[in-house]
Amino acid sequence: MAKKIYAALLRGVNVGGSRKLPMARLRALLEGLGHGDVRTHLQSGNAVFAADHGDEESLAAEIRDALEREFGFTVDVLVRDAAYLKAVADGCPFPAATLEGKQLHVTYFSAPVDAARFAAIDQAAHLPEEFRLGDRALYLYAPDGLGRSKLAEALARPALTKGLIATSRNWNTVTKLVEMTDA
Question: Is 85 exposed, middle or buried (0-12, 13-18, 19+ CB in 10 A)?
């Protein structure tokens, strides 16, 4: 089987001084699992690798289990292939080319989400902030950045993401991962 390029998106590592996970050790862990061409981006749990076995779900479980053995804590992991990452970037409903990277975010979900899940959010009350749903992804336009976004707070409520793994990346990281996985 030919190797396929993937990105692993780890949730909640190296944030606020807890759940420390050095990227050099993450690279070594992925190589130890037999993956090749391993590279990381930033310190927030973004890794690109080539695998000749598995699919997104089995690879995510393999990495999650290895991280727990190595570091002693559980890390939610999403794995997405290069084609999916490119489709998410290409499918952006906002004018990404005219926005700053900190104004646009993508939340990746472990399963598809539908509008009913987010129906209780009054989008008009949050303007000019907006969100749109994609395939296993949510696009968020926050003109003042994520840290000041009231809509981001509303979208992060546990009831809205119940039963899902969800992890967000700003547009700079979204496009960098597409670039890194472009074979």
Answer: buried
| CATH code: domain of residue 25 | 3.30.70.1280
The answer, as to whether pTM is greater than 0.85, is yes
Whether 95 and 79 map to the same domain: the answer is no
Residue 177 lies in a domain: no
Segment 128-144 mean pLDDT: 96
Give 58's contacts (C-beta < 8 A, 6+ positions apart). Answer: none
Distance CA 94, CA 73 (A): 36
Q: Give the pairing of strands 130-134 and 77-81.
A: unpaired
Assign 1 a pLDDT band (cuts: 50, 70, 90). Answer: low
Q: Residues 54-77: what's their mean pLDDT? A: 94
